[in-house]
Amino acid sequence: MLSQNVSLHNKVILVTGAAGFVGANLVMWLFKTAQASHIIGVDSVNDYYDVSLKDYRLQQIESDVKHDNQWTFKKGNIADKAFLESIFEEYKPEIVVNLAAQAGVRYSITNPDAYIESNIIGFYNILECCRHSYDNGTKGVEHLVYASSSSVYGANKKIPYSTEDQVDNPVSLYAATKKSNELLAYSYAKLYNIPSTGLRFFTVYGPAGRPDMAYFGFTNTLRKGDVIKIFNYGNCKRDFTYIDDIVEGVYKVMQVAPERRNGADGLPVPPYAIYNIGNNSPENLLDFVTILGEELVSAGVLPPDFNMERHKELVAMQPGDVPITYADTSALEADFGFKPSTTLREGLRRFAIWYKDFYMKGGK
């Protein structure tokens, strides 16, 4: 296992995408674990999906705040360079976790501009601010951790997906932007000695998640009594990863920055790393739908006599989708002694209970 070389205590920690699914849960995790630290949250709170969910997450964060200097939220877009520079100038973050991004494979087909703005320009701005945090000999950013995606593997035939695999054939613009993030981070690590770690997330799910994800969208559709479409005729597998496992993985990675060192040529060896965070256990979509239906019935979201078979339609694969995602997490286990452990049924049970509470109070 790698040794911790970054303390999260008494630090200024910047989390972008703080109103997002992973970002909000990470902030609340840090409240419990990063003692006497000041967490700066940044988010544009855009309307890509229901803003009430983002407001709910921010309210959950506010309810967890224990003292005045624990939490500061700034609404703004990381693609606005002046805004981001003002954050770095005022707060001088020592650890940066970039989770702000335009997500979603299908949305990238119809709204490509959003991906270039957030995922390319926004991430470039993050890197530039990290670079200039070292100006005039200051200590600057100790570790940049950023979200990549399992989408970078494209239609990779080799499974499970390993970070050693070539990922040069993205099948969506979203995937291409995430691969670009990894390349940009590598070049800035090489040029400016910025310790950076990219995390390829595999199908994150759980309470208060993103409504554009299959489990959430299926639930909305089934609750209305409509038919859900299962792509590739049900012959898809996904490595579903519960939100608490993702956040714990991010937390562990934050504390281990890639080592700064010089190579034989006297130049910096890029302090750069990439890891998969997934369950290492892909689930067939048909099995997933069965479990989801059972847990929705158990939670009271669907009636006890709900007939799932009448509400399923098997259809062809969509553009940009891949038939399987499957994470090789051996590097994460070896370096951090960590492997996600929440079962799909337990994770979907927690989601179903939350969904009932959030959407169906008072018989709504």
Automatic annotation (TrEMBL):
Domain NAD(P)-binding positions: 14-350
Record-annotated membrane-spanning stretches: 12-31
Gene3D superfamilies for this protein: NAD(P)-binding Rossmann-like Domain, UDP-galactose 4-epimerase, domain 1
InterPro entries per the UniProt record, alphabetical: NAD(P)-bd_dom (IPR016040), NAD(P)-bd_dom_sf (IPR036291)
Statement: the UniProt record of this protein carries the keyword Membrane: yes
SUPFAM superfamilies: NAD(P)-binding Rossmann-fold domains
Pfam families in UniProt: GDP_Man_Dehyd (PF16363)
Keywords, alphabetical: Membrane, NAD, Transmembrane, Transmembrane helix
Protein name in UniProt: Nucleotide sugar epimerase
